[in-house]
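Morning run. Coffee first, then this:
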Amino acid sequence: MIDTSLFRGTGTALATPFDTNGKIDFNSLKKLIEFNIKGGVEYLVSLGTTGEAVTLNREECQSILDFTLEQVDGRIPVVFGVFGSNNTEIILERLNGYTLDGVSALLAASPYYNKPTQEGIYQHYKVFSENSSLPIIIYNVPGRTSSNIEVETTLRLANNLQNIIGIKEASGNVEQVNSIIKHKPDNFLVISGDDPSALGTIAYGGDGVISVISNAFPEEWSNMIRAGLSSDFGKAAKININLHDLHYWLYRDGNPCGIKAALKIRGIIQEMSVRLPLVPVSDETYKGLQKEMEKILSLQEI
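And here it is:
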């Protein structure tokens, strides 16, 4: 049986640092990885949405994954984000084109744009499951894919396909998340894909979060999630409240634009460069983010 406890807690959806010329800044990536491991996160997610995988070519993705695995050196698990596609065959081609030695699991977004039926979503993941030797975390993010993985489909995948071990739920639908938690198999993970509501998901019985904010606040955020998972909601709520106002500024100009600005402010990366069609945050957002972060970092205990 797959040890799903490896992915219980905080997984940081790593940003991909770029230099002023738009090239991968591996020195900053090394610093970011070490900052997160030292901060106590349970695992890292390489090349998800926050990692801008959609604007990276295959060679760049492989180089980032290889570098991340080498830097981590087995200290914590690494999950590889397999960018969703509206063509199942293309996903399989991409999957077969990567060297995945050392990867602990895959994160796979549901198909985007062509709005498949629930049966189509199920068959997509079934084919993906049958062609993967690694555990799979499905990713439901209707705001980006324009289709929702409904409760019945999630439970069908959870019960029928043994290497589908969990879901990253970013639907924003509390009732949907609660229904999955209530009816899921015991070893199936329900992972929040939304930082502001992550503690609420844990309170209902969820298993953690794949987080954006933890790039810049790994110790604080992972302490909050662990406190929640230990039912110490007094401690968890205090940290959550102290970090709450930061979410607005992180997402005001989109992700990963906001978190890259935060990482630059913290001195973890050199530039807040992103690849088109994304652009860096506005001066107003940068200043607002900086002010809020200074307030948070001035606290004696969060």
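The two ends are 37 Å apart (CA to CA). Good start to the day.
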